[in-house]
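task queued by scheduler; priority normal; single chain, no ligands, no partner chains; default sampling; output format set to structure tokens
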Amino acid sequence: MTIGAVGERGIGVGSTNRASWLSVILVADDAAPAWVSILSLVVSAVALLVSTGWALYTWRRTGEVLSVRGDLRPRLFQSARRRPVRAGQVFQVLTITARNRGRTPVQVYRLWLASKDTKKRSSFQCEERSATLPVTIEARNRVYWFVSPQTLGVLTKQHGNPLVVRPLIEWGPDHWKRGRILRIRVAEEHLPGQAPRFKSTLSYFDLKCVLKGE
């Protein structure tokens, strides 16, 4: 049995992406066992799969790879190893993150909180330190928007309480990206038209003494 040469060449996706693949060809003579031919076919198939997978990976990472998500916690309490909190009551602020995993910048023009089918969309006012729209997200970077519980309370007029919405961004003509659904329970004190409640520290016995002038 003789082992053939190892050939290497580049395959391109589009005009800018190239991936290298390595194929090993085992050339068997008539006296070689049958398993050698089978092995050569398996090795060639694996090499082809690896090269195709690499080409697809580099192609996907060439342009804009945009994602958006909401988290019911501020950035301080978020962790890359833990999933975002998407249901419950907002802890301080709702954080909306847009991330560009691609190799080229992308510009985001508009942001909404929308219904499940995205047909009902609500614009809102963001808190300080939020990205100003339109905003350019550089390659391998992200931006944030922060929404207060009071603002979410206003949105209950259109979407009800709890809010069942998803973040939605526009990043080009007919280019939309939506995040996963959020189920936000807005506290009563953050609902519109609710006056702040007075919380007395006096007990019932102390209040009787005050009324009697003692």
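post-processing summary
- Residues 34-60 form the longest helix (27 residues).
- The helical segments are 34-60, 149-159, 204-212.
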